[in-house]
Amino acid sequence: MEILVIGGTRYFGVHMVHSLLGNGHHVTIATRGKTADDFGDKVERIIFDRSDAESMKMLGSRHYEVVIDKIAYCSNDIRYALEVLDCDRYIYMLSTAVYDKKTMDTKECDYNGSERALIWCDRNDFSYREVKQQAENALFQKYANRNWTAVRYPVVLGTDDYTGRLLFYVAHIVKSIPMYIDNLDHQMSFIRSDEAGNFLSFIVDRDLKGAINGSACGTITLREIIQYTEEKTGAKAIISSDGEPAPYNGECSHRINIEKAQSLGFVFSHINDWIYELIEYYIKRLQQTDCC
Hints:
Layout: E1 2-6, H1 12-22, E2 26-31, E3 43-47, H2 53-56, E4 63-69, H3 75-82, E5 86-93, H4 128-141, E6 148-152, E7 155-157, H5 165-174, E8 179-180, E9 190-192, H6 193-202, E10 210-213, H7 222-233, E11 244-245, H8 259-263, H9 275-291
Parallel strand pairs: 1-2, 1-4, 2-3, 4-5, 5-6, 6-10, 7-9, 8-11
């Protein structure tokens, strides 16, 4: 297939592009050209500015069977893309942040973008959740006649995670830095970075329209993460109301339902199969840093 990837040079986008190439697709990546990649001459490249409507027009110069948009953020981003793109299928990388309230069985139908008022907005106009909702509202309402898929992921984790959110907890324990945590025992869903990329690659030739969740099987609590780190390091977490606010504060107990994705034949790993190895990776990295 001829596939255009908008973004794709960072984090799980890299896994996705390698998977697409491995499956024999012809890939063009459109980016600002500021992040180096290891794709070499295996991909074509377009340099553009996503926030500039005029720059977006260059993406409409040829036909693509599939466009995977990893960096659309708000409803205006969706509009700028779909008003110019010539494609048979549009796949949008979204987030489970669209759900107003996540539950222990969060299903795709728990957010329906056709039932909300559509507001054309930029990324700084509202909260993260609201602009993500408006992006999906645009798909449901303005572009209902287009063949689109919105992929909703929870927090993505991996050794290549540049956000440092899970590392925050490990580092604060190892370094005895106080932290404030308001949800120690809340069950949470995550997804591993390589699986996040591989699932996007997997669905390009599946008959699928609308929203779909992706997530690792199972959940984990921050207490479990902290206890494992303490056991491996001998350090003790300092949890205090005066400590530095932790990244996952405010997250309620939830589990992302992935039955729809599993029905397509994709197999997600169980979180217990890799989360503890990832914690150990961070511990070793911190120890190596301290030795230098």
